[in-house]
Write a structure and sequence with these properties.
Helix content is 23%, strand content 44%. It is an alpha+beta fold. Strands 4, 5, 6, 7, 8, 9 and 10 form a seven-stranded mixed sheet that branches.
Length: 175
């Protein structure tokens, strides 16, 4: 693969055109988004309640129900980013932030790796929102969060993946 051609450099990501060769020797080109990675957090207020957020997303022009999340800073440790984002978006500070799963968000066009953490031992505090963020905490029963996912009230991919993965983990722990 040759060095990618930068088509767009934005504040957080860039769009590049890269070439690659297939086994038959042909050269192909793809435009992809290069992203530093992100974290999302499953904040368990207690064993039966999770803190979601209502987050206005300009890209879709509406408020979505999500897990708190954020982009990694340059060289930032994902666990540290998860603790930081939890405080910023919910105000909660966690005694424990443990890794749950990692996955690629949309590998057909994007290299963003999402790191999912579970936060427990939460202590409430004030949100520390960044300029322009419109985020409201939404504490719900765990079963209600799963119902929201099943009913299509939650449409954010990282939230669906985080909730469902943690549900599998919870069920296995009870078995």
């Amino acid at each position: 693969m040759d060095s990618p051609e930068i088509l767009l450099q934005a504040r957080v990501f860039r769009v590049v055109r890269q070439s690659y060769r297939t086994p038959d020797g042909r050269e192909h080109f793809r435009e992809t988004v290069v992203h530093p990675g992100a974290v999302t957090i499953v904040p368990m207020v207690d064993d039966d309640h999770v803190c979601l957020i209502r987050n206005f997303r300009p890209s879709v022009g509406r408020t979505l129900i999500e897990l708190p999340a954020g982009t990694l800073g340059q060289g930032e440790d994902p666990r540290a980013a998860a603790a930081r984002e939890l405080i910023e978006e919910t105000g909660y500070r966690a005694r424990s932030v443990e890794p749950l799963v990692e996955f690629f968000m949309s590998p057909g066009i994007l290299n963003e790796r999402m790191y999912v953490f579970v936060a427990t031992g939460l202590e409430p505090g004030d949100q520390q929102l960044e300029a322009g963020e419109q985020i409201e905490r939404l504490v719900v029963a765990w079963d209600e969060a799963l119902d929201m996912a099943r009913q299509g009230k939650i449409q954010d991919a990282k939230t669906l993946a985080g909730l469902l993965h943690y549900e599998v983990t919870r069920r296995r722990a009870k078995a």
